Amino acid sequence: MRLSTAVRRLRSIAERAQQVSPFASVPALLSVYAFGPVLESPADLDYVQVACVVDLPLADVIWGTSPPWAASLAHLLEMDKAPVERHWRPTEWPVSNHAIRRPLRLWSASEGIDVSSMDALSTGRVESLRLPEPHPAVLREQLAAELAASLTHVRQVEELYWEADWRRGHRGDGFHPEDHLWRAVHGYLDLLAAVHG
Questions:
Q1: H-run or E-run covering 53
Q2: H-type alpha helices, the chain
Q3: 103, 105, 64: which is closest to 86 by C-alpha?
Q4: 169, HSE (Cβ side, Cα atoms, 13 Å)
């Protein structure tokens, strides 16, 4: 997609966040960020990358997973209508991690749509508005905690995988129990590589 199309998609997501945030209470949506190549103003993109911070602890927002509530929230934000790679982030850690580098805030529950960010995206001058890189020691601590939570999640999914209630609760919106197992393992291996790689 062209950069102008990507920027329109991000603006639409921010506008939808503004409209639906009072109604998206489980979990509460706190902020939306763009990250990745769209911030470098390329001519063409395959997709845009978005990180959404939700009011849940780390144990409920494991890296790389798509919890049962995520499909509904993505639908409300209309992120399922276009090529959008979405990631969910917990409140107890910064939005940044090994993959989400120097993101740009598009919207927050406290301040609404970030007009400066949206304008900067249109002109390609986002550098001064992006979040700074986290201190390496802080990032290491964060990744270690996320890795431990991810391993716990993989073990839980493996233990519950064949239970009928778990399988029913993890089916729908285009996802199957196999998808949740794959995402759990993929997220864990991604964090493992970031910590030890």
A1: strand 48-54
A2: 3-20, 68-76, 115-123, 136-160, 164-169, 177-196
A3: 64
A4: 10
Please tell me the distance from the alpha carbon of residue 67 to that of residue 64, in angstroms, as a whole number.
Answer: 10
Lowest-confidence region among 71-80, 109-118, 183-192: 71-80
**Which has the closest alpha carbon to 122: 3, 2, 1?**
3
Instruction: For tokens 């706190």, name the residue.
Output: 30
- 107-134 burial: b if 16+ Cβ within 10 Å, else e: bbbeeebbeebbebbeeeebeebbbeeb
3-state SS, residue 91: coil
Give the predicted TM-score (pTM) of the model: 0.92
Nearest Cα neighbor of 80 from 167, 16, 153, 4 is 16
CB atoms within 10 A of CB 19: 12
With H, G, I as helix, E, B as strand and everything else as coil, classify residue 75: helix
Q: Indicate the fold that domain 3-129 takes in CATH.
A: Beta Polymerase; domain 2 (3.30.460)
More confident residue, 172 or 170: 170
